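Predict the 3D structure for this chain.
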Amino acid sequence: MRFFAALVIAILLSGEGAVACTLNDTLKLCVLNGRSLAALHSGVDRGDWTVEAPSSPVNSTSEPRTGSEHYTMPSGLRFAMYYQEYRKLFSATCSLDYFAVLAADRVEDLRCSGAEIEAFEAGLAAASLGSVTKDRKQSGTAYLIEGENTWMRVVVASDQKQKDLLNTWVETSVLKKP
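Done. Predicted structure below.
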């Protein structure tokens, strides 16, 4: 199923022009790789994205180990990752740096076509992270993904027409196996 998710991302990224819907990067960085620091850092090693000076906890033996990192995607979009890591739990929030998009005058990146939104939802389902529940409201859509040891809430805040995104973020909790 990860192959199918990768295929969906490849199709989304092969669209015309340089405009990239933020959902593409959200799926790749925050959903598919945001369940552990190791996965995020292996993406850096593969060249999938860059990180500004990965944070390391001051005291690696205390709990929780907390930190934040800023990732830049090849599209130029920036995401912030805030995490807490306990012995048996990893918790993180990955969010689009919305103000950087506005400051760089890249508001076109906040517009997603109906096909891109459908492909994002297909990518969520294909990622095999668990069952996906969708809750659409006037202010956007929330997805709850419940897996065996993983819970994710993916929030896509948008205008009333569901075309222009206002922001996107992913909250993740992973219960580590002993």
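The chain has a mean pLDDT of 82.
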